[in-house]
Design goal:
The chain has about 90 residues and is an alpha+beta fold. The chain contains two helices and five strands. It has a five-stranded antiparallel sheet, covered by helices on one side. It has one domain: Scaffold protein Nfu/NifU, N-terminal domain (Ribosomal Protein S8, Chain: A, domain 1), CATH 3.30.1370.70. A hairpin with a 5-residue loop joins strand 1 and strand 2. Helices cover about 20% and strands about 35% of the residues.
C-alpha cells in the first residue's frame, strides 16, 4: 500500500531529511539501512535505496529519515522519494 509524505522536515544534519508519512512504515520494528547493505526482504527500503543519491535510511513509526550523499540535492531527491513511497507495495 502506498505512502504519502505529509511533510518534509529539515534536521540539524544538512544531509538528512525527515519524511512524515500518512501511516506508519514500521509499527512493530524500527530499522535502518545504508547504501550497499542487504535489506532483507524490505521492499520499502529497497525502493528508497534505489533512488540515486539516497545513502541511508532510518524507518520508524510514522516517519522515515533519509540521508543523502553530499553531492545530491534535496530539490531533486524530494520528488523521487515521494514517488518511491507512493509506488511502495
Amino acid at each position: 500500500m502506498p505512502y504519502h509524505v505529509t511533510k518534509f522536515l529539515t534536521t540539524p544534519n544538512p544531509n538528512a531529511l525527515k519524511c512524515e508519512l500518512d501511516r506508519s512504515p514500521a509499527p512493530d520494528r524500527p530499522r535502518s539501512y545504508a547504501q550497499g547493505e542487504p535489506v532483507h526482504d524490505d521492499p520499502l527500503a529497497s525502493a528508497l535505496l534505489a533512488v540515486p543519491g539516497v545513502a541511508h535510511l532510518l524507518i520508524h513509526d510514522g516517519w522515515i529519515t533519509v540521508g543523502k550523499s553530499p553531492e545530491a540535492s534535496w530539490a531533486s531527491l524530494k520528488p523521487r522519494i515521494s514517488k518511491a513511497l507512493g509506488d511502495a507495495p
